Amino acid sequence: MSVSVRIPTPLRKHTDGQEVVEVDGKTAGEVLENLAETHPGLRDKLFDDEGGLRRFVNVFANDEDIRFLDKLETPVEDGDEMSVVPAIAGG
Is 91 inside a domain boundary? Predict the structure, then answer.
């Protein structure tokens, strides 16, 4: 089951410049874990020391924020799209 994951510009250095990466998985968490396995530089950017998603990383599955769905357990299907969106702060 392949899901298209859109990678933000600041993280593309870890995906060899790819804007979209095809990744297998049945849940958002599996997709992100497989993405981090394939592109190890992303692991520290996506996951905290306990294996949870970092607070400042927003993930959308088909334009829905997974925080308001089933978080990392959000089911995904073949052909779905996910986006990784780092939070931006400043003043």
Answer: no
